[in-house]
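REVIEWER CHECKLIST
Item 1: Sequence provided? yes
Item 2: Single chain? yes
Item 3: Sequence as submitted:
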Amino acid sequence: MKNFIIFLSLILVFTSCSVKPENSTESEVASQEEVADNTDKDEKEKEEVVVEEKKNVVEGVKDADFSTDQMIFPEIITNSESKTIAEINKEIKILFDDLKAPYEENISGYDENFVDYFYDIQDEILSLAIRYLEPFNFYNFYRTYNINMETGESYTFDEALAKSGLTEQHIEDSIKAFAAADYTKQLGDEDFYSDAVELHTYEDYQNYVYESYTMQKGFNTVPFIIRGETKDLVIFVDSFLIYHDSFTPMKGVAIKEYIYETGVYSANEKQPLAISYEPSEEEIKKADPKLTYLGLEGEEWTEKFLLSSTTDDLNLKFYTVTFDENTYEMVPDQILEEVTLNKGESILVDIMVPEGMPAYGVEVSKGDMKLSHYFGYNGLFGNSPLEMPVVRE
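Item 4: Structure as written out by the authors:
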């Protein structure tokens, strides 16, 4: 009985500790709630302090105050006294000072921009590319900066390459594929020439362009950026080795594992279609074509073409062609396939390519943009591995 009374007493003691006394005043309760509120407020203030401590050194990019209508330079916005950012902004101002007088003397009167820039932010990396026109020979040059926004430190090409998982072989393949497509395009330009070297075949041109990259790599001056949601490693090949229109928009080579992807992600707005010639089985499997066309019955010695859209909502018509004796032009005859493609989507055609008059063609359109392309040999020594037809004005 004595033990039972002691046990009951203990129960009453613990129970009384867990129940609010009936005679507790409202002020005491309010005081307890105020203490709890103040504790929560202190915790929030601590969290806010932590966030403030993690604020990025780099906040973004804006047009520099010294920019003009035709010389649009960037300025990196920073909230700290980062020496790296200060040096970069100083370099950009020096470039402006170096170009201003020569522009005024040599190329005034043009409507096009002499300098412009592009930037992209992926994760913590700010990538900035400046294109500027050399004022004496009218070549395009590129200056790039890749910066860790949290620390303000520069991001090197070797670091970017290592992080991408790509190799030097991927770089060589991508640059040479792009060069082959560029060579094909420029064969159609009346002003295509090179006074530095004789370029008899697209292979010569491929090697020529790739050598410009290896030279830049040797001097540790490869212009590159990280671009887009796919985080493409994009290399700008110095165009003093290549002739282009004086005011060609900024473009770079997206380094990819497969040639058709290099075409898709290196294209500009006037190149809606990337055509990979004789793609490997691995490349075809990777592309996963939306449809396959095997050519007309009885065709022999066929060749494969992987047609990939570089934009969304691209309407594609694949057809046979015939010669119009009234206009002396090749025109569509019979539509064989019609499909809408989004960026990166492909169709595969396996067709005969005659050495003379073309038998097949493709038309792609989007809004007011339209491009027609006929399948034939695009060089004296067969087809290049990649074509990127251009919409002409």
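Item 5: Key structural point noted by reviewer: The chain has eight helices and 17 strands.
Item 6: Recommendation: ____
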